[in-house]
Write a structure and sequence with these properties.
By secondary structure, the protein is of the alpha+beta class. Helix content is 29%, strand content 26%. A hairpin with a 3-residue loop joins strand 3 and strand 4. InterPro entries: Anti-sigma_ChrR, Anti_sigma_zinc_sf, ChrR-like_cupin_dom, RmlC-like_jellyroll, RmlC_Cupin_sf.
Amino acid sequence: MSYHPEQELLKQFATGDIDSAHAAAVATHIETCSHCRQLVAKFEEEAAEDLVASGTEGAISDNDLALVFENMMNDITTLDADYSRPKVRSAASIEVNGKTFKVPATLKPFVDRMGEWKSYGGKVFTSNIDLDEDCKVSLLYISEGVQVPQHTHKGFESTLVLHGSFSDENGFYAAGDFIREDGETKHAPQTSASQDCLCLSILTEPMIFTQGVARIFNRFGKGMYP
């Protein structure tokens, strides 16, 4: 894979200061990307060191530590879980356009929250995922030999390729690639004549079409979500 989350996003993932949509996208990416996985481990270690350092500056009393330990043990002993069996995460399956795709286990909670597939001309399909967050999250399927109208963004568009590939003016993207675009980008994603594509799409603001008849959608509010 050639495209990765920027380091700031990986740091936010390591410290937990990240929204659930991007957290799931990054978690899925690092499952198959050793480079980003190592960076996350490094950032987690740095965050732990910072936490220890801040703790020594404001010393915690023995009584406070004892209370924390007691509360932790109470929580553990009251949990209804069997820790003798390792947790096994399984992938989920989705069906779109007559095809079945396996979705990584890291995204299985998203599959459980999927809405109905919407079709645009029988070539592009989207299913919105209800996360009750400010960003718009969806699964996006593009059939073979299709070009999405050129557009830009008022906010950010994060895309994680789950299956197949697509290209635009800036590059070629295959399974596992993570791409993040903003208002400085104008692009028209397209699939090849022999390859379709399934992506996870995260939009913080609607798309703004910049060419052709699709610009009519810009008149309906601030733009359009897929």
